[in-house]
Design goal:
heterodimer, A: 301 residues, mainly alpha, two-stranded antiparallel sheet, 2 strands, 72% helix, B: 277 residues, 75% helix
């Protein structure tokens, strides 16, 4: 009886997660092997046909390639900015509370709203970004930011970086605030310069947090639909399509459900790899307050 | 080399200023467009200036775009999803924090994995599931999916806070002959209220901001939640009423942004305690 108590406590949450997250995966796996009509009727087993169709589709490969660029550029850009920002926010200075609130602000706004506002701000004729640049005398003709795939995709990457900074900074701040101060004091005594302190103390100690920030960001950015969907819907001419936007179009615009299911499964596989990486990183340093680890839990507080 | 706090502050603010400007820029765009007269939207050359503040834009927008309806839908979905997620997470987080049991490690990994599964990858499967349950175009489909997708986060946040509540108090109650259930309800839960409130608010904000599932499951405009409703005024329209759209985004985001700003340090703390460490 005693033993079943914790089981009963986790059972409801487990059931919901299996029903809403587990079942659709199985359904996708099944759908991916079926011929599916435009209206979602399954027309029988076709084996790997849907996958063959996906792999024979140049738009899939273009989207995959762009997904790689999108994920890499956003994650690298985000980390490059978040690291110095976190180090600044971890230090004591006037107005730090305000600075933290401002830096965290994009996190509070839904990606959809952010993307809608940027879509208007980037309007080729009357957008306020053009207004700013023209009034500052930097350009004398408005730029059609979203009209060509190249500039549109670049701008989307920059917006992607902007909205990923708060979360990443938060993780890095968590790491910095747990940093042992005596290491720095010893380094100062030994005459280490600021750069040396960063290179030989901060970076190695921050390694686990940076790893987690990278893996989590890769997962989130890889999966992120709203920015590109709202700003360009993958256009012009599929020029900004990444896997998620292409998948969404196939499923809900073109009615190619079998193909869409196959892409979902491929993405699921990629995600699974990154998730296992993440699980491995996290479970390396995990604690709880269960009785056998009481001492550990105490100095945790 | 040590700097005075003042020098350091000036230097830091200078370093942060480009980022601060880029972060605040969209907010400026929102406000300036939302209060602009309609015929000053598409002027050439584009400019930040405008002739007068038209606060009526907000009331016009409210009526014309059925903002109130979408607001109620968003509130209903976010509140219900938060309630369900918390109701299911509290016992689970308690079990994870206080008991040793077979499969605990496996359950933790399972939760981590569900957290990583984004709605977009599953959206087709979820849509088919909701079709078979007859829940397409029903706000409750969003309620249960949001609850499910947020649960890993809520269990995790709650567990990390529960770990910081000392066991001694409950153990003392057990000594006095209280059952586990009594000690849970009378001793533990009152202490856990702040953690639950913070977790609830973040779950609420997550649900409030969700886009992909709402876009997919809600097919009729009466059932749109705010993000979808605002998106629908922009997408595929020849003539976009940008002053109304921006007035809508102001109303939909500013209250949430204020609450979030006020609570963000708890999020940092919770993540430092549990999610990351």
């Amino acid at each position: 009886m005693q033993k079943s108590i914790p089981m009963m406590m986790i059972l409801p949450s487990l059931a919901l997660a299996i029903g809403i997250i587990g079942y659709p995966i199985l359904d996708l796996a099944f759908t991916a092997t079926q011929e599916v009509s435009r209206f979602g009727q399954l027309r029988g087993f076709v084996g790997w046909d849907n996958f063959a169709e996906v792999f024979g589709d140049p738009l899939f490969w273009e989207s995959l390639w762009r997904t790689g660029i999108w994920t890499f550029a956003v994650v690298v850009g985000t980390l490059g900015i978040s690291m110095p920002v976190a180090m600044i926010l971890n230090d004591d200075f006037y107005g730090r509370g305000l600075a933290r609130v401002i830096i965290m602000l994009p996190w509070a706004i839904s990606l959809t709203m952010t993307a809608v506002v940027w879509r208007w701000a980037l309007n080729g004729r009357s957008g306020l970004l053009n207004a700013t640049l023209m009034q500052a005398g930097l350009i004398d003709q408005p730029i059609e930011w979203l009209a060509t795939a190249g500039t549109a995709f670049t701008v989307e990457i920059l917006v992607g970086i902007l909205v990923s900074i708060p979360f990443t900074t938060t993780i890095l701040l968590g790491g910095l605030s747990a940093m042992p101060q005596d290491a720095y004091e010893a380094a100062v005594v030994d005459g280490a310069s600021g750069w040396h302190q960063f290179r030989y103390i901060t970076l190695p100690l921050m390694r686990p947090f940076i790893n987690i920030a990278i893996v989590l960001n890769v997962i989130y950015v890889f999966n992120s639909l709203p920015i590109i969907w709202v700003m360009t819907e993958g256009g012009p001419a599929n020029g900004t399509d990444i896997l998620v936007t292409y998948l969404y179009k196939l499923a809900f615009r073109f009615g190619q459900l079998g193909k869409a299911a196959a892409i979902s499964l491929i993405m699921f596989g990629v995600l699974l790899i990154f998730t296992m990486l993440y699980v491995a990183l996290v479970s390396r340093n995990d604690t709880d307050a269960a009785p056998d680890q009481e001492d550990e839990a105490d100095d945790h507080v | 080399m040590t700097m005075s706090k003042l020098t350091r502050s000036v230097l830091y603010w200078l370093l942060l200023s480009p980022l601060v400007v880029v972060i605040l820029f969209p907010f400026g765009v929102m406000f300036v467009t939302a209060v602009r007269p309609r015929d000053e939207l598409f002027v050439y050359p584009p400019t930040w200036g405008f002739s007068d503040f038209r606060w009526e834009n907000f009331s016009e927008m409210w009526v014309k775009t059925n903002f109130g309806g979408a607001l109620m839908n968003s509130l209903y979905v976010s509140i219900s999803a938060t309630a369900i997620a918390l109701l299911l997470s509290i016992p689970a987080a308690y079990a994870m924090s206080r008991y040793r049991f077979a499969g605990k490690g496996a359950y933790r990994i399972f939760l981590l994995m569900t957290q990583m599964m984004s709605p977009i990858v599953l959206v087709l499967g979820l849509f088919r599931l909701m079709m078979s349950l007859g829940l397409v175009n029903d706000l409750n489909s969003l309620v249960i999916t949001y609850a499910a997708f947020n649960m890993a986060f809520t269990i995790w946040m709650l567990q990390s806070y529960f770990n910081s509540i000392p066991r001694d108090l409950e153990e003392a109650a057990w000594m006095d002959g209280a059952s586990h259930l009594t000690s849970l309800v009378r001793i533990f839960l009152p202490l856990a209220v702040p953690a639950m409130v913070v977790t609830a608010i973040f779950t609420f904000i997550n649900s409030w901001n969700e886009f992909v599932l709402a876009l997919t499951m809600m097919r009729s405009s009466d059932d749109f939640t705010l993000p979808v409703q605002i998106y629908a005024q922009v997408a595929g329209r020849y003539q976009v009423e940008w002053h109304h759209v921006m007035a809508g985004t102001v109303l939909a985001t500013v209250p949430v942004a204020i609450v979030f700003s006020w609570l963000q340090r708890y999020l940092i703390r919770g993540m430092a305690l549990g999610a990351v460490k």
